[in-house]
Write a structure and sequence with these properties.
Helix content of chain B: 40-55%
Structural class of chain B: alpha/beta
Radius of gyration of chain B: 19 Å
CATH topology of chain A: Rossmann fold
Radius of gyration of chain A: 16 Å
Strand content of chain B: 5-15%
Number of domains of chain B: 2
Shape of chain B: globular
Number of strands of chain B: 6
Shape of chain A: globular
Number of strands of chain A: 4
CATH architecture of chain A: 3-Layer(aba) Sandwich
Distance between the termini of chain B: 47 Å
Oligomer: heterodimer
Helix content of chain A: 25-40%
Largest sheet of chain B: 6 strands, mixed
Structural class of chain A: alpha/beta
Largest interface: A-B, 30 and 39 residues
Order of helices and strands of chain A: EHEHEHEH
Largest sheet of chain A: 4 strands, parallel
């Protein structure tokens, strides 16, 4: 069907995922090589470790118009660098609360642990996050959004 | 003898005995405002005052290199200022042994003690009930309403960075907001730039903020910064049992 004013394209959320290279990215890779389908709404940004993910990255993603942001790394105890994900966990526990207070609620910001062996979990998580972001609708109240 | 006189006498004797090179305190400026005083002479020590209008956190000066050089130093310190000193010492910004505390509080003034003893005497802080009530009210709103509330507050921010200048925890030689390759935070004093700045300012002081209120007192736009600070401190206490600046040996909350 051709899009028009009467027939707008249905809302498709844009989701930015910050993942670590050793676990979640490898999990995403496994989902791909296993031919598991997951929604194409997610843009994956690969980093060496969740400990490398600065809260500024998340603000920047929202500034650029992301409807939701996902952060995912190795399970606690499984970090390639032994403790990066523990640093990340503490940081997120606090940052998530700050974001919630500022108006970026828990339906916009997701955290998860996915190992390199969990391709199926990655595909289903992306499905879930996309569904939640879709039902939350376009992020019109995004306080971090860049203004013209 | 009033406690201000005792404070002046102790400051003067510390200076004359050569135990300190500088006394950080407050004086009354020409317009009646209480301003920070850096007393190096007896005449200056005679002008020191302390009352509830003295809002600046003097520990902020000890994280500034040109003042921190002038140790040993004595500092007029409320319990919150002592906590800020403990945070600075734990973060290797300050040699705690070079600091003599002149402790003041609602109860008055007691004589000079070292930082270690002042830290040992600290009690668990009580959070302002008014701020906690306002936070409860905010958290009961839907996120979009909270977003609107903050947009209204942050719209007044002119990015003067008085909050940063008055904060003992903000001592980076180059603040993230001044880094421009890449530029993470827009320096434009509006919308997304103000939001990102306020979020990062609050987050970078998480687990380090001692809730002295100097940032909010310094804000010329009257933005309720303590709502952000107290919320994070309260959540850190609830989640991790962590209070900034109470235990000199504690690991930082966010490493």
């Amino acid at each position: 069907m051709i899009e028009s004013a009467d027939n707008p394209a249905p809302f498709e959320p844009r989701i930015t995922a910050f993942v670590c290279t050793w676990c979640t990215y490898a999990g995403a890779d496994l989902a791909g090589t296993s031919r598991l389908a997951y929604p194409p709404n997610v843009r994956i940004v690969k980093l060496p470790c969740t400990g490398r993910i600065n809260p500024l990255f998340i603000l920047k993603a929202f500034e650029g118009g992301a409807d939701a942001v996902l952060v995912s790394g190795c399970h606690p105890g499984d970090c390639h660098y032994t403790s990066g994900n523990y640093h990340a966990r503490r940081r997120w526990a606090m940052f998530r609360k700050l974001m919630d207070l500022a108006g970026i609620g828990e339906d916009r910001l997701f955290f998860s642990w996915i190992s390199a062996a969990e391709g199926g979990k990655f595909a289903s998580l992306i499905g879930q996050v996309t569904e939640q972001a879709r039902s939350a609708g376009p992020f019109a109240a995004n306080p971090a959004r860049r203004q013209p | 003898m009033s406690f201000v006189e005792a404070l002046r006498r102790d400051a003067a004797s510390l200076l004359t005995q050569g135990r300190v090179r500088l006394v950080l305190g407050y004086r009354i400026a020409g317009n009646g405002r209480r301003v920070p005083a850096m007393a190096t002479s007896l005449a200056a020590a005679e002008k020191l005052v302390y009352d509830e209008q003295c809002k600046a956190n003097l520990a902020a000066y000890l994280s500034k290199p040109h003042i921190a050089r002038r140790t040993p130093v004595a500092i007029v310190a409320t319990p919150q200022v002592v906590r800020a000193l403990v945070v600075l010492a734990a973060e290797s910004q300050l040699n705690g042994e070079q600091v003599i505390v002149l402790p003041v509080s609602a109860a008055g003034y007691s004589g000079p003690i070292d930082l270690k003893s002042a830290a040992a005497a600290l009690a668990k802080p009580d959070r302002d009930a008014g701020i906690l009530a306002k936070l409860k009210e905010l958290m009961a709103m839907p996120p979009a309403e909270r977003s609107k509330f903050w947009a209204g507050q942050f719209a007044r921010c002119t990015r003067c960075y008085a909050c940063r200048a008055n904060c003992p925890a903000c001592y980076c030689r180059q603040c993230i907001v001044e880094k421009n390759q890449p530029q993470w935070i827009s320096t434009a004093a509006r919308g997304h730039g103000n939001f990102a700045w306020q979020m990062i300012r609050a987050f970078h002081t998480t687990g380090r903020c001692v809730e002295c209120g100097a940032c909010e007192a310094a804000c010329p736009a009257g933005i309720p910064l303590m709502l952000l600070n107290v919320y994070l401190a309260d959540e850190a206490a609830r989640e991790f049992g962590y209070e900034a600046g109470l235990d000199p040996a504690a690991e930082p909350l966010i490493g």
